[in-house]
C-alpha cells in the first residue's frame, strides 16, 4: 500500500467512505415496515445500499489494481528516466531526435486537484436531500438535488441540467407511483 499515489490513496478513502455509507444505508432499510406487496417500501433503498457497497468496493479494488500496475512499471521505468534525464542534460542526441523526456510505460499522475472538497460537498448535498425528501416531497427535492449535482460538473449547461433533473424526477415518480404502486412523499405539493 505504500506505492499508492495521493490520487489513488484518495480513491481508496472515497471507496471506503462510499462502502460505509452503503452499509449504513442498507442496514437502515431493516427498520422500514414491510408490506405484502412484491415490491415493498424496503426494496428500492436496499438496492441503493447494495449498489453503494458494490461501487465502493469496486473503487477500492480499482485503486489497488492501478497501484500494483504502477509498482510494476515504475521500477523498470525509473532507471531509464534517470538515464534519459542525464542524456538530455549532457546534450546527447535525445533532444535532437525529437524523443520525449518521459520514458515509455511510466504512468504520470495529473496535477492534484481538490477532489476531496468536491466529494465532501456531494455527500453533504446527499444528506440535505435525505433531510428534505419527506417534508418537501420527492418531485421537488429530487429535481433540486439533481440540478445541483449536475451543475457541479457542468455549470455552464444549466438548461440541459434543469431539463434532465425535472424529466428524471417525473419519470421515476410516475414509474414508482403508477407502475409499481409504491407511493413516494408528495410533501408540499400534496
UniProtKB/TrEMBL annotation:
Limits of the DUF1468 domain: 13-185
Any Pfam family hit: TctB
Keyword Thylakoid: no
Coiled coil: none
Keywords: Membrane, Transmembrane, Transmembrane helix
Keyword Transmembrane helix: yes
InterPro entries according to UniProt: DUF1468 (IPR009936)
Highest taxon of the lineage: Bacteria
Transmembrane segments: 12-32, 44-65, 123-146, 158-184
Protein name: DUF1468 domain-containing protein
Species of origin: Brevibacterium aurantiacum
